[in-house]
């Protein structure tokens, strides 16, 4: 299946198609190649607790367990893809080497603080031998993007930009004039130090045009991303992970686990499906921050499919996988309900 095209439903295909969402009943490793390329991946898989079939019983085994998934995510990712990796503190620490090995670049960690109410009445001060744990974390990763230089070397963006300008033989200072800035081009865009800042696409296009005008003529356009055509601003901007900033939102998110109508209960009054069901608000923050409406969100370890519900609510396309039959049905029911809510609200949106 090519990106941009949904596969036809086949009798041997265990995927459930629900409008802008598809849910694969089975191991996500068998589904990745049939999904549209992701802009955001929300991974909320094993923590090394041995609670589900196939889950490691210790965090020590998480790197090996996650490695094939990290490789598959990297293979299907775009330059602007963001990975949100949920786990415990020790679980993430153990899994991080597998992510890094497959080209995922660590950016930051979000701490989910569930608050004292999460453990109220459940701590015996006479027997406990440590601090009550009320946190989980979500580490944010992006892709390491390299571009091919004129001599065929694969270079990180910072080095590639400097190499392209130097190819012109022009003084670095002229880059400021090309971009219409006082000194940002030499101080940020073309610097070799750790103060480097990735330039916007319009600046790259401006430097390319300047070099074409004043530099020596070459068979390969200056700053050409594909080695054939002059760069376009939008083309360059797609090399960077998306980030939609929200003011006053830090990396510590204080919120109780899902409760009330949002909490998914098992049929027959048998209790909740998940003791620590994540609120939709957490998933929504991640998805809105790292993607735009119409983009694709992956949820490889669907569970109750909270990330997919949040993706639909935010106007994205969702792909999820879940092998457990009970969780699959519960998650699919949530997606159906969300799509039904969209249809009910559509006339109101049109009227307004």
TrEMBL record:
The molecular function terms of the Gene Ontology recorded here are:
DNA binding; N-methyltransferase activity; site-specific DNA-methyltransferase (adenine-specific) activity
**Could you tell me what reaction this enzyme catalyses?**
a 2'-deoxyadenosine in DNA + S-adenosyl-L-methionine = an N(6)-methyl-2'-deoxyadenosine in DNA + S-adenosyl-L-homocysteine + H(+)
EC number(s) per entry: 2.1.1.72
**UniProt-listed GO biological process terms:** methylation
* Highest taxon, organism lineage: Bacteria
Name used for this protein in its record:
site-specific DNA-methyltransferase (adenine-specific)
Q: Pfam families given for it?
A: N6_N4_Mtase
| Residues in DNA methylase N-4/N-6 domain copies | 40-317
Identify its protein family: Belongs to the N(4)/N(6)-methyltransferase family.
Gene3D superfamilies for the chain: Vaccinia Virus protein VP39 (3.40.50.150)
State the UniProt keywords alphabetically: Methyltransferase, S-adenosyl-L-methionine, Transferase
């Amino acid at each position: 299946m090519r990106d941009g095209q949904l596969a036809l439903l086949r009798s041997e295909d265990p995927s459930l198609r629900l409008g802008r969402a598809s849910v694969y009943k089975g191991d996500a490793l068998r589904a990745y190649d049939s999904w549209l390329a992701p802009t955001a991946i929300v991974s909320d898989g094993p923590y090394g607790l041995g609670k589900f079939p196939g889950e490691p019983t210790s965090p020590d085994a998480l790197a090996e367990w996650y490695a094939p998934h990290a490789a598959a995510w990297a293979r299907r990712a775009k330059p602007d893809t963001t990975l949100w990796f949920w786990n415990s503190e020790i679980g993430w620490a153990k899994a991080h080497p597998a992510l890094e090995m497959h080209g995922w670049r660590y950016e930051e960690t979000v701490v989910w603080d569930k608050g004292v109410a999460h453990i109220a009445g459940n701590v015996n001060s006479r027997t406990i031998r440590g601090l009550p744990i009320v946190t989980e974390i979500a580490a944010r990763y992006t892709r390491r993007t390299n571009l091919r230089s004129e001599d065929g070397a694969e270079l990180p963006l910072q080095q590639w930009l400097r190499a392209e300008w130097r190819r012109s033989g022009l003084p670095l200072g002229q880059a400021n004039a090309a971009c219409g800035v006082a000194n940002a081009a030499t101080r940020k865009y073309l610097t070799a130090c750790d103060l480097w800042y990735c330039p916007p696409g319009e600046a790259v296009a401006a430097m390319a045009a300047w070099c074409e005008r004043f530099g020596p003529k070459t068979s390969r356009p200056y700053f050409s991303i594909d080695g054939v055509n002059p760069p376009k601003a939008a083309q360059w901007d797609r090399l960077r992970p998306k980030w939609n900033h929200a003011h006053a939102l830090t990396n510590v998110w204080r919120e109780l686990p899902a409760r009330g109508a949002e909490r998914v209960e098992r049929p027959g009054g048998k209790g909740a499906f998940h003791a620590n069901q994540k609120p939709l608000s957490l998933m929504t923050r991640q998805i809105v921050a790292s993607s735009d409406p119409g983009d694709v969100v992956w949820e490889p370890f669907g569970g109750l499919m909270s990330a997919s519900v949040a993706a639909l609510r935010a106007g994205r396309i969702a792909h999820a996988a879940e092998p457990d039959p009970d969780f699959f049905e519960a998650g699919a029911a949530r997606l159906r309900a969300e799509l039904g809510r969209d249809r009910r609200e559509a006339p109101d949106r049109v009227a307004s």
